[in-house]
Amino acid sequence: MADTGHHRIIECSREGRALRHIGTGQPEFNDGSIHAAAFRHPRGISLVRDILFVADTGNNALRRVRLVDGDVLTIVGTGRAGQPAGGALDLGKRVSLSQPWGVAAADERVYVSLAGNNQIWMYDRTRNSIQFIAGSGELATGDGDGEAAGFAQPAGIALAQLMLYVVDSGGSALRSVQTGTNRVQTLLGHGLFEFGNAVGARAETRMQYPLAVAKDPDTAHVWIADSYNNEIRKLKLGGGEVARFEVSAARLDC
Prior knowledge:
By secondary structure, the chain is an all-beta fold. The protein is 0% helix and 44% strand. It is globular, with a radius of gyration of 18 Å.
């Protein structure tokens, strides 16, 4: 898991016991061994076999952790916020990103949500290249294909086959992106600054600044961290309604 406030990655057992820490814990930008590398406010993570991809938000970079030995390498990012340029990566650190927040990887594709750029990009591991997917770059929530669509500070993302699910924090929305066509569609949400706390039919549902999303691997449901409402939402895909997921053991404070 990403221990954001302590600037490190923690590997845990299923029982919750910490097995090892990756990173010094200091808010710096260093590649290297498990104890020499450093992150700055890492957030989204995604695992593909023995490689962990990390959205290192504070360093404006996409990092990879080799789990066999904990070695950390920067794939894309200069440490400074900027607008990325697509194409093959000669030296990844020469390509700028702005606040990468979420990451979702599958085989050779690594999707990244850029909250500062209001866009979605994809890193192709086979071609060692970065590719634009969707988002005009303006703070907006309109649907459409590729650059015609708008995002508002996209945060957490989840990949399920050819569909990418994105929580648009600034629009208090859940969006979907068809990775084959780059078509963006709003599943939940009503536009910028339209937020609240309501569940039920999609047209009636209101969220407030959601920051994380996960696709249930066994059912046709999407789980959403509705952060400013301190609640978990459960959406049934295919036209289903939205429900609250009650956590009885503790009060959430997202």
